Amino acid sequence: MAQAISFTLNGKPVRVSVRPDTTVLDLLRGPLNTTGTKEGCAEGDCGACTVLLKRKGINGGIANAANACIMTAAQIDGAEITTVEGLAHEGVLNLLQEAMAENGASQCGFCTPGIAVALTGLLAKNSAPSEEQIHDALAGNLCRCTGYRPIVEAAQKAAGKIHLLAAAEMQNTVSNEEISFDGSIAKRPTSLAELLEARRELPNATLLAGGTDLGVARAAYEKDWSSIIVTNNVKELRSTKEDAAGWTFGAAVTWQEILENVGQALPSFGTLIRRFGSTQIRSMGTMGGNIGTASPIGDGPPALIALGAQITFAAVDGTQTTMPLEDFFLDYRKTELPQNGVIVSIHIPKPKSDEHFRVYKVSKRYDQDISTVCGAFWVKMSGDTVEDVRLAFGGMAAIPKRAKHAEDALRGKAMTADNVEKAGKLLGEDLTPLSDWRGSANYREKVASGLIKRFMHDLNGEAVEVMAL
Known about the structure:
Low-confidence stretches: 164-168
Structural class: alpha+beta
Strand content: 15-25%
Mean pLDDT: 91
Radius of gyration: 23 Å
Number of strands: 20
Shape: globular
Distance between the termini: 50 Å
């Protein structure tokens, strides 16, 4: 049994004995004394704690920005971490850091380390990013006292000159099967059989994939995890397959990997992925985790339901079940997943030429915000007639759910303004939105109806992307 966690920090091997549920931020700022990494929000939102994380076989094995505040030590065993201290070479700032200093891209400086790390990661992978790509890389970094213009200009100035983090063989690929210290244990299975055995052995363990949701709760409530099962080494859960029928993603595939696979074929879905997860979140968060939390306002499930996705999960005895994702959700935070079972994979069919898909998210802030309403729509057209249709919503019921009465109002008819209006009036037959500080039930119902109209206009080439959605 391994008592210590091993990884590479700023190019040097590190071996440290800490509880595996220790946050990487606490590990860096405490025992390892790399205090350039800051704590801002402690919930993966502000980016002050951004580090570059490289893990073998995950996200292409290249360094990606990640939030240290919601990541645990158990997740970085065998990985490579680069902090702001590792950006300079022999005390000389890298070109991005120099450009930021020369361009007045920092005021109080608290957020600057995370911004410098995030942009260095971008420029190492993309020597000539567009302004849109720079903004996307900065979407997970909040600067409270300066505008982003000088920061973006600094990134543009340094573009083409950063080569510090090019993809290369990892220096430290050692990964422990089990880590324990001070009453906390983390198991790191490598196969589905080992994962299910770990579930039987530790039935109350925290099942940890990306931790972008669980890590927030742990940081907020400072609740220790006495036992953890980490899924990111399980080969079946890390599998990605594509064929003529569609894509099958293992439950531990990250959203960044999913984006790279489906972003061009499903551009509307790609836009959604970029909006609900910054680079830091996408490089850690997984599709299986997003589904498994069963949140009524999770953005992934409505889109996947509208696309006709299928989910496969396994019970502890190894029995696997496959079903439409829409049938997986039963009630608020309740699913068909058996006790101590695990989500194995999700299959997304490829749309055919006569099929059209769009997903729209309405939130108070454009990037990285929780949805008020998320509407996802798929239609199969036969000429001007709707042959089949799926209208799925998040934020409109206790579970992500289809509006089947509204679908019936469109199926077999032309998608005209009158028919869409009738469909919108039937949303209340299937959906019962709540009222909270993000929006009243009445507001949500009107927004949902409006999104169906937007879908119609979008299919007719009459809609344009607006920041309010």
